[in-house]
Design brief:
This protein has 516 residues and is an alpha+beta fold. It has 5 domains: 2-67, no CATH class; 75-130; 144-319, 2-Layer Sandwich (Nucleotidyltransferase, domain 5); 332-401, no CATH class; 414-511, no CATH class. The chain has 20 helices and 15 strands. Strands 1, 2, 3, 4, 5 and 8 form a 6-stranded mixed β-sheet that branches. Strands 9-12-13-14 form a 4-stranded antiparallel β-sheet, with no helix packed on it. Strands 10-11-15 form a 3-stranded mixed β-sheet, with no helix packed on it. Helix 7 packs across helix 9 (117-130), helix 18 (444-461) packs parallel to helix 20 (481-489) and helix 19 crosses helix 20 (481-489). The longest helix has 18 residues, at 75-92. The radius of gyration is 42 Å and the shape is elongated. The N and C termini lie far apart (117 Å).
């Protein structure tokens, strides 16, 4: 507009169009058009300059001749027609299946000379932006902790089955300092949510005045904008930690904007560095997550001095309430009959836990939390396990098995290296005999039984006699358990200390195959 005002002043001074072009940088034809419209307005130069920018732009932008053209709709009138309907259009867009294209088609049916699709969408967008304004909140140090689950999951590979186990990630942030915490959990069950919160406040080293949660069913029993009803477990949690539980409004993520931003940062600073790493347990995953978390909280701010940790420790941590003397845990109680496989089942997880086999057939009480499973026979605790969330899985302690079962499990764990290590403890000849037996048969169970038999002869005859017997046959073409046992039984190991020299194999000597 300052250029248009400059043209008006130059025109009043009697300057030619060529001079105006040189002084303003505007093209000749554009200046001619502005001068034509200024003269058509019938107003003096001072009157034009006294007008506001909005009035002056209307004068120089719309020709009075054009205003009088038959059938032409003025811009102001056309916008007024649309403006009256913008409020209804904005509400219609929230209905399922309603699009801007549909609204524009309905608008053009009522107003054939109305705006085209592009201008229609432009005006509608400007109207919607008025309701999309955001407010800056000034957070008070130590006042609030915001918590929410990340949408994307992390996970680990079960080393026994090779299965990828997906894990939920709970994120918490202190809005004043943006001090962030994250932990991977087995699920979003209520006891897991509470366990994540407990570890979060322990990481903070204190309890804030309030905790704002997403409107999740594990926390909120009945949603309400003004007085939401929280679950019983969360009410007890609030009392235990002497803090206030708050809930964001339904479908209002801006109520907890800080944790929404923290989740986005977690994807970039926690998830991304771990994207190519493979973990084999939840503990390994959380340890790596904690390492990246320390880097994030110690990362210097770009636009101001310090980092998340320094701001939190100097300005927020001193204002937090003290942690209670004990952690808050949800304890659940159930009962289960000990099956013939000496296991009881926690039906919630469909997972089985071992008890001493002498309790088969008895009905036992099970008390379990998010981390442990305790099993009681009356008032006596007979077993304790770390809780597992693996469906249809088994958690078994070796001391709960009968002796024959322990032997069977031990036998399945045997391998060639185990027998060679045991033979080396006896002597080099025994090691050589065991190694030859292991190489003699393809079927491992048969060779393992032979090796086990030879090694157990030491219990009956001593290591020195077993080593002497093996030294006697270490150069024999064929060695087996029976040969070693016969030597020891007949005391042949005591008769000769030098190994028996067997005829070495030679191509000119016929073997047993020549007599078939």
């Amino acid at each position: 507009m300052h250029q248009i005002r400059r043209i008006i002043e130059l025109h009043h001074q009697g300057r030619r169009i060529r001079e105006m072009v040189r002084l303003t940088g505007i093209s000749r034809n554009t200046i001619r058009e502005y001068l034509r419209r200024i003269e058509a307005s019938g107003l003096g130069h001072q009157q034009l300059l006294d007008h506001s920018d909005e009035t002056l732009i209307e004068i120089v932008s719309t020709d009075p001749v054009e205003k009088g053209q038959k059938g032409r709709i003025l811009e102001a009138d056309r916008f007024a027609q649309l403006e009256r309907r913008l409020e209804r259009y904005s509400s219609e867009l929230k209905r399922r299946g309603v699009t801007r294209q549909l609204l524009w088609e309905e608008y053009r049916q009522d107003h054939p000379q109305g705006y085209g699709y592009t201008q229609f969408c432009g005006h509608l967008k400007k109207y919607l932006l008025r309701d999309d304004a955001v407010m800056h909140f000034t957070h008070i140090p130590g006042e609030q902790l915001q918590m929410d689950f990340a949408g994307d999951k992390l996970g680990y590979v079960d080393i026994q089955t090779g299965e990828w186990i997906a894990c939920e990630v709970l994120v918490g942030v202190m809005p004043y300092s943006n001090f962030t915490y994250a932990i991977a959990l087995d699920s979003q069950k209520q006891e897991q949510v509470i366990a994540g919160f407990v570890k979060n406040v322990k990481y903070l080293g204190g309890v804030p005045l309030s905790v704002k949660w997403d409107n999740m069913r594990q926390v909120v029993k009945r949603a309400d904008r003004y007085e939401p009803v929280f679950t019983e477990a969360l009410e007890y949690l609030s009392q235990h930690y002497n803090t206030t539980i708050l809930a964001a409004r339904v479908r209002k993520p801006r109520d907890k904007a800080s944790v929404e931003k923290a989740v986005d940062i977690a994807y970039k600073r926690l998830y991304a560095p771990l994207r190519d790493r493979v973990f084999h347990s939840l503990e390994q995953l959380n340890e790596a997550l904690h390492q990246e978390l320390e880097k994030l909280n110690s990362r210097p701010f770009k636009a101001k001095p310090g980092c998340r940790r320094s701001v939190f420790e100097t300005e927020e941590k001193p204002l937090l309430k003290e942690l209670p003397s004990s952690d808050y845990l949800i304890k659940k109680v159930t009962e289960s009959k000990v099956q013939r496989n000496y296991h009881v089942i926690v039906g919630e997880d469909r997972h089985q836990y071992s008890v001493p086999y002498t309790l088969i057939g008895k009905r036992l009480k099970i008390i379990y939390t998010s981390e442990t499973v305790e099993i009681y026979d009356g008032l006596s605790r007979v077993a304790i396990h770390r809780r597992s969330y693996k469906k249809n899985g088994y958690t078994t302690l070796a001391q709960h098995r009968p002796e024959k079962h322990s032997h069977q499990v031990q036998q399945k764990a045997w391998d060639g290296e185990y027998f060679e290590r045991q033979a080396a403890l006896v002597g080099p000849a025994t090691l050589k005999v065991i190694s030859r037996i292991l190489q003699s048969n393809v079927f491992y169970e048969q060779t393992y039984n032979s090796c086990l038999g030879i090694l157990r002869l030491a219990n009956q005859y001593s290591n020195s006699r077993l080593e002497a017997a093996c030294r006697r046959i270490e150069f024999a073409p064929l060695v087996n358990y029976g040969m070693v046992k016969n030597i020891l039984k007949k005391h042949l190991d005591k008769e000769i200390t030098e190994p028996i020299q067997f005829t070495p194999p030679h191509e000119q000597i016929r073997g047993p195959q020549a007599y078939q």
